[in-house]
UniProtKB/TrEMBL annotation:
Signal peptide: none annotated. Transmembrane segments: none annotated. It comes from the Bacteria. PANTHER family: PTS PERMEASE-RELATED-RELATED, PTS SYSTEM MANNOSE-SPECIFIC EIIAB COMPONENT-RELATED. PROSITE patterns: PTS_EIIA_TYPE_4 (PS51096). Keywords: Transferase. Gene3D superfamilies: Phosphotransferase system, mannose-type IIA component. It comes from Clostridium hominis. This is PTS system fructose subfamily transporter subunit IIA. Pfam families: EIIA-man. Residues 1-123 form the PTS EIIA type-4 domain.
Length: 126
């Protein structure tokens, strides 16, 4: 099973979770970590590593709000240590999160590609 960690600034992760609860439900493999104003990068990294310890050897997809920002950097540094086990993406939309909540098949890299493609395909102009 691939575990998914949604990470972001302020209430991003909490808001994503609440959105999923209303629309599609939240899968047991989805976890949510917010970087608050009070958190340092060390505190954020501790939160992430504590959660990773619970996952054993399962693969992990980090889904961050903003590329290059603090949550992304923490996730990317962890991913760089083991790219077979971890993958980091940023900028996913609600449709991608709903798909991740409902379908968790394949390896971490296939799920990342699927989520990215869903985000691209679900943006429209009316």
């Amino acid at each position: 099973m691939v575990n998914i960690i949604v990470m972001g600034h302020g209430g991003y992760a909490r808001g994503t979770k609440e959105n999923l609860e209303m629309v599609s439900g939240v899968s047991n493999n989805m976890h949510f970590i917010d970087l608050t104003k009070e958190d340092s990068l060390d505190i954020l990294e501790e939160k992430v590593k504590k959660l990773l310890d619970e996952f054993g050897n399962n693969q992990v997809l980090f889904a961050c709000d903003i590329i290059g920002a603090s949550p992304f950097r923490v996730a990317a540094m962890i991913t760089a240590e083991n790219q077979e086990r971890y993958c980091t993406v940023a900028g996913l939309n609600a449709m991608a999160y709903m798909e991740l909540a409902m379908a968790n098949e394949g390896d971490v890299h296939a799920l990342a590609e699927k989520a990215i493609n869903t985000t691209k395909e679900s943006v429209i102009k009316f």
